[in-house]
Amino acid sequence: MSEELCHSTIADLSRLLDRGGVSAVELMRAVIARTKEVDGRVGAFNSFDEADALAQAAASDERRSRSRTAGSGAPGRPLEGIPIGLKDVIAVAGQPLTASSRMLEHFVSPYDATVTRKLRDAGAICWGRLNLDEFAMGSSTENSAFRTTSNPWDLERVPGGSSGGSAAAVAAGEAIAALGSDTGGSIRQPAALCNVVGMKPTYGRVSRYGLIAFASSLDQIGPFARSVEDAACLLSAISGHDRRDSTSVDLGVPDYGAGMAALAQSGRKWRLGIPKEYFGAGLDPEVGAAVQAAIDEYRRLGCEIREVSLPHTKYAVGAYYIIATAECSSNLARYDGVRYGHRSRDATDAIDIYFKTRAEGFGPEVKRRIILGTYVLSSGYYDAFYLRAQKVRTLIRRDFLEAYKDVDAIVTPTSPTPAFRKGEKAANPLAMYLNDIYTIGVNLAGLPGISIPCGFTRGGLPIGLQVIGQPFRETELLAVAAAYEKVTDWRMRRPPL
Ligand code: GLN
């Protein structure tokens, strides 16, 4: 019973909580027990605060019983009492906020991120601090200073990254859903590798106030969930304008779940674009076959499938690793040992504090990126690298907008390969960077994208399908994803833990 609860969807649990079939405290206890049972093997959490989670759950039960006695009889709010895991770059007041870095190992956040506050306002329980690649830089969680999270489907393999802890926790039943951040694929790729749904909203849809910044023109917060419907529910809760993040857009927030259901009702036939550049060399044959089968499924559903071209795709990884490193070199300048976080103990003067603190506090990948980013921004190289990358970025966005003249959404693999073995790519940063080839363009263009389960390899590893939508048209994107999800049951499979 209790393991069943941990693998249920938000939608099912919400009904169960409404009926009184379970209390929020019982649900939270089940999730805590499950986490204690499996996290020694999975390693999804940096930390969790059992007493705090149970106190939040008790407060939720209290709210529910008050509204019952008030006799409204109306169904409760969908996230009331649901434990949601948070990537350890999203601030939760009074809880550690480490970015999986020695630099912030002992830092406790004095305030809530806007998404955290919105989850609380919706009645959700903020549950645990989920592991990631240090400062969200990586595709495997191997760059975490604390632990490499294991893929629940094969503990010898990585869960993807950088939000590997969020994906693994949802896959393993250690959280009902989770939030992550996506700068170049960090929600979608781990979702694909762990058989869960992961969505990056349009740039500007969700406030980043209280998110530790990596590359500010690319970062976006989004949900991990067990169904498209659950992802829609979380997206509705966290979206919206925030005066504390000037890049969040002042647009009304639709009820994504209701909008998606209405589109499904309408029987609308989608025009889907298949970018020919996404099916070339480097695509694992089993991933390619599963994605082809998914496209065939869409055809059977009556969708119109068209080939489209995104000709500047070949420059995306290069442009991304210039822009992202440039922005990170600037964002990470604040970790100087003076204001907060790690400070070297054996520094002798002010300059020495900076040098030693940063040498001790940052891991090798973060240092590599700060050095690269500083280089591409330096005088004499700025035009050759940074400015040119910005121009390529514009071309990539234009490619997508051109394609959207003919199609409603674009369908691709999420990751070129299924989960790889720990250590397999760790020594070769370029091989690791190439893993982002299908996800990065979406961030450069600021578009919404979602990864949904679409099959397994013969060896039992999950495969993800990416659907890319148009700016601020998440409802349609979710509806396209849900149409496929409805006629398949990949998402129902559970890892052999
Ligand atoms: N893997 C990419 C990188 O290393 C993307 C990371 C992310 O989206 N945060 O930068």
Task: Record keyword descriptors for this entry.
Amidase signature (AS) enzymes; alpha/beta; 41% helix; globular
Protein model, in words:
It is a single chain. The chain is of the alpha/beta class. Among the domains are: 2-265, Amidase signature (AS) domain (Amidase signature (AS) enzymes), CATH 3.90.1300.10; 314-390, no CATH class. Helix content is 41%, strand content 12%. The chain has 17 helices and 11 strands. It has helices spanning 2-6, 10-19, 24-42, 50-69, 114-121, 164-172, 188-194, 228-238, 256-266, 285-300, 316-331, 350-361, 364-377, 383-403, 429-434, 440-444, 474-486; strands at 45-47, 83-87, 125-130, 177-182, 197-200, 220-225, 271-275, 304-308, 409-413, 449-456, 462-468. Strands 1-3-2-4-6-5-10-11-9-7-8 form an 11-stranded mixed sheet, with helices on both faces. α10 links the parallel β7 and β8 (304-308). α3 packs antiparallel against α4 (50-69) and α11 packs across α14. The longest helix is centred in the last third of the chain and has 21 residues, at 383-403. The radius of gyration is 21 Å and the shape is globular. Bound molecules: glutamine (GLN).
Q: Can you tell me the CATH class of the domain at 2-265?
A: Alpha Beta
Number of helices: 17
Tell me the fraction of residues in β-strands, as a range. Answer: 5-15%
Largest sheet, in brief, is: 11 strands, mixed
Radius of gyration equals 21 Å
List the uncertain runs: none
Mean pLDDT: 96
Count of DSSP strands: 11
Question: Could you give a quick summary of the protein structure above?
Answer:
This protein is of the alpha/beta class and 497 residues long.
